[in-house]
């Protein structure tokens, strides 16, 4: 067991996840943020403000909006709409194709971790977050 604090492991894991997703999606010239926007629009179409709110926890310090990512998806013909955004049929197809790659990445991340361990880890992190949000 490591003597390093949880903050170290949280940041380290987040960087590893970011790098892995970027590597997995690089063949499509996409990054993790592209996937997050694509997946969010697949699940629940909305405005850029909606996306910014949903994805705020994932944005880097110098990233204030997902607008550039939305514009990139529009240029590819994967997203449409000026205010209310949704995926085009091509965007839905892209989502379906990328979903398999993302599932493989998620499986790699949780290899050797059973469902109960995963749920416990998420629960602990959720409670730690709630403790700090209350203060």
Explain what you see.
Helix content is 67%, strand content 3%. By secondary structure, it is mainly alpha-helical. Helix 1 crosses helix 5 (89-109), helix 2 crosses helix 4 (67-75) and helix 2 (32-43) crosses helix 5. 15% of the residues are buried.
Write the SSE topology.
Layout lengths: L5 H20 L6 H12 L4 H8 L11 H9 L3 E2 L5 E2 L1 H21 L5 H20 L1
Antiparallel strand pairs: 1-2
Helix pairs in contact: 1-5, 2-4, 2-5
Tag the structure with descriptive keywords.
135 residues, 2 strands, 3% strand
Largest sheet: 2 strands, antiparallel
The CA-CA distance between the termini, in Å, is 30 Å
Query: Segments where pLDDT lies below 50 for 5+ residues?
Result: none
What oligomerization state is this entry in?
Answer: single chain
Shape: globular
Number of strands: 2
Please identify the structural class as seen in this structure.
Answer: mainly alpha
Order of helices and strands: HHHHEEHH
What's the short version?
The protein has 6 helices and 2 strands, in the order H-H-H-H-E-E-H-H. With 135 residues, the protein is an all-alpha fold.
